[in-house]
C-alpha cells in the first residue's frame, strides 16, 4: 500500500534539498511550506542547517526532525500540516552559501539514497529533487552525470527518459533521446534500438503517469533540416525513419523526423503531447525559453515517480542570502509529482 492510499490524506512526497550551498534548501522549504495543506512534503537534508534557513525565510516555519533509523523502525511520523518533517541527512561540513565544498558531496548523494529507499518502501508516494551541482559530486570522487542516470542505476531501470514540461492544461513537453552526453558522442548514441526504447518508455509513461490515452509524439531530426534528404547527414534516413516506422507498427502515434528549427510552432504543437528532441541542447532551450522558472523535469521509465525543477543551483543567488530565488518551479514539480501519483493510482485500480 502506498503512503497516499492508506487514507484520504495528503500524499507524502520526499524532497531532497540538493546542493547545500545553492538555492535548493531555500526553494524546498518555501515550496513545502506553501503546499503544506495539500501535500505532506518530507524534506531530506541536514536538519540543523535547514532550521537556520527556515528561520531566515519565515520564523513561523516549524520543522520536526526525524532520523532514518526511526523511520525505518516506526515509519513516517504523523505530524499535523503545521509542521514540516525533516528526514535528517547530516552534512560533513559547515555550509557557506554560494561556495561549493566537495566534502559535502557524498551527503547530497545520501539524500537521494534516502529518497529512493523511502519511495520504494512506500513511506513516500514520490520524490522531488532540488538541484545539485554535478561537478561537486565528481570532485567528491564519485563519477556522476545527473539525477536521471543515478536513479536509473540505483533502481536498475533498463531505460530512462528525461522529459521537461511546462505547466498548464496543454503543456509543451520535451523529451530527450540522449541525456547528459558530450555533443561529439551524440550521433553514435542514437541507434534504432535506443530510439525504439525511448519511444516505448514515452508511450508507456505518458499513458500510465499522465492519463493520456494515445499520446502523439513528434520527433525532431538530428541534422539541420532533418538531413536535407541525406545531403546534410544520413542519420534520418538510416536510423530515425526506420525506428519511427517500427514504432508505428507497435501502435505508437509518432510522426517525424521534422526539422528541429521549425518544429516548435503552434501548427505542429497543438495536436502533440510531446516532442522528442535528439539531444539536451536541441530540446531544453526551447522549453526553458517558454517556461523557465515554472517548468518541471520528470524522469520516465523508473519504478517510482521523480520530478525536479527546471533550473540549477544558482550559486550567484544563494551567495546573496535568502530571498532572491524563485521557488515557482519547485512548487510545480511537487504539484506534478502529486498529479502523477493520482494518475498512477487511478490507472492501476
Ligand atoms: N535538477 C538539477 O539538479 C539541475 C538542473 C539544472 C542544472 N543543474 C546544475 O546546476 C549547476 C549550475 O547550473 P547553471 O549555472 O547552468 O544553471 P542555473 O539554473 O543554476 O543558473 C542559470 C541562471 O538562472 C538563474 N536562476 C536559476 N534558478 C533560479 C531561480 N530559481 N530563481 C531565479 N533565478 C534562477 C541563476 O541565477 C543564473 O543566472 C550545474 O552544476 C548544473 O549541472 C542541476
Ligand atoms: N538536464 C537538466 C536540466 O538542464 O534542467 C539537469 O541537468 C538536471 O538533470 P538531472 O535531473 O538528471 O539531474
UniProtKB/TrEMBL annotation:
Chain positions recorded as substrate binding sites: 147-148, 288, 297, 306
Catalyzed reactions: 4-(phosphooxy)-L-threonine + NAD(+) = 3-amino-2-oxopropyl phosphate + CO2 + NADH
Residues binding a divalent metal cation: 180, 225, 280
Pathway annotation from the record: Cofactor biosynthesis; pyridoxine 5'-phosphate biosynthesis; pyridoxine 5'-phosphate from D-erythrose 4-phosphate: step 4/5
Protein localization: Cytoplasm
Main subcellular location: cytoplasm
EC id: 1.1.1.262
Cofactor note: Binds 1 divalent metal cation per subunit. Can use ions such as Zn(2+), Mg(2+) or Co(2+).
Enzyme class at the top of the EC tree: oxidoreductase
Cofactors that this protein relies on: Zn(2+); Mg(2+); Co(2+)
Keyword line: Cobalt, Cytoplasm, Magnesium, Metal-binding, NAD, NADP, Oxidoreductase, Pyridoxine biosynthesis, Zinc
InterPro entries: PdxA, PdxA_fam
Role summary: Catalyzes the NAD(P)-dependent oxidation of 4-(phosphooxy)-L-threonine (HTP) into 2-amino-3-oxo-4-(phosphooxy)butyric acid which spontaneously decarboxylates to form 3-amino-2-oxopropyl phosphate (AHAP).
Family as reported in the entry's similarity comment: Belongs to the PdxA family.
Miscellaneous information on this protein: The active site is located at the dimer interface.
Subunit structure: Homodimer.
Protein name in UniProt: 4-hydroxythreonine-4-phosphate dehydrogenase
Species for this entry: Actimicrobium antarcticum
The gene coding this protein: pdxA
Amino acid at each position: 500500500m502506498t503512503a497516499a492510499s492508506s487514507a484520504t490524506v495528503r500524499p507524502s512526497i520526499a524532497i531532497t534539498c540538493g546542493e547545500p550551498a545553492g538555492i535548493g534548501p531555500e526553494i524546498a522549504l518555501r515550496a513545502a511550506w506553501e503546499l503544506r495543506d495539500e501535500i505532506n512534503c518530507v524534506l531530506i537534508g541536514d536538519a540543523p542547517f535547514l532550521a537556520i534557513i527556515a528561520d531566515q525565510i519565515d520564523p513561523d516555519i516549524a520543522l520536526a526532525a526525524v532520523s532514518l533509523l526511526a523511520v525505518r523502525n516506526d515509519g513516517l511520523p504523523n505530524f499535523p500540516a503545521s509542521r514540516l518533517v525533516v528526514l535528517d541527512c547530516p552534512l560533513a561540513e559547515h555550509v557557506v552559501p554560494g561556495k561549493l565544498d566537495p566534502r559535502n558531496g557524498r551527503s547530497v548523494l545520501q539524500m537521494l539514497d534516502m529518497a529512493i529507499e523511502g519511495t520504494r518502501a512506500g513511506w513516500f508516494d514520490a520524490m522531488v529533487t532540488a538541484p545539485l551541482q554535478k561537478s561537486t559530486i565528481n570532485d567528491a570522487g564519485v563519477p556522476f552525470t545527473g539525477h536521471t542516470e543515478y536513479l536509473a542505476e540505483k533502481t536498475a531501470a533498463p531505460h530512462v527518459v528525461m522529459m521537461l514540461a511546462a505547466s498548464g492544461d496543454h503543456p509543451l513537453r520535451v523529451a530527450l533521446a540522449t541525456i547528459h552526453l558530450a555533443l561529439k558522442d551524440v550521433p553514435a548514441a542514437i541507434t534504432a534500438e535506443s530510439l525504439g526504447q525511448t519511444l516505448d518508455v514515452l508511450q508507456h509513461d505518458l499513458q500510465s503517469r499522465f492519463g493520456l490515452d494515445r499520446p502523439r509524439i513528434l520527433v525532431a531530426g538530428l541534422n539541420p533540416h532533418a538531413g536535407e534528404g541525406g545531403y546534410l547527414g544520413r542519420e534520418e534516413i538510416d536510423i530515425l525513419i526506420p525506428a519511427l516506422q517500427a514504432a508505428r507498427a507497435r501502435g505508437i502515434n509518432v510522426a517525424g523526423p521534422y526539422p528541429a528549427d521549425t518544429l516548435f510552432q503552434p501548427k505542429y504543437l497543438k495536436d502533440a503531447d510531446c516532442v522528442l528532441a535528439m539531444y539536451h541542447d536541441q530540446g531544453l532551450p526551447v522549453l526553458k525559453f517558454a517556461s523557465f522558472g515554472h517548468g518541471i523535469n520528470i524522469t520516465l521509465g523508473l519504478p517510482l515517480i521523480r520530478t525536479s525543477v527546471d533550473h540549477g543551483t544558482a550559486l550567484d543567488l544563494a551567495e546573496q542570502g535568502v530571498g532572491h530565488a524563485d521557488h515557482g518551479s519547485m512548487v510545480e514539480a511537487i504539484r506534478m509529482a502529486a498529479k502523477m501519483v493520482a494518475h498512477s493510482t487511478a490507472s492501476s485500480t
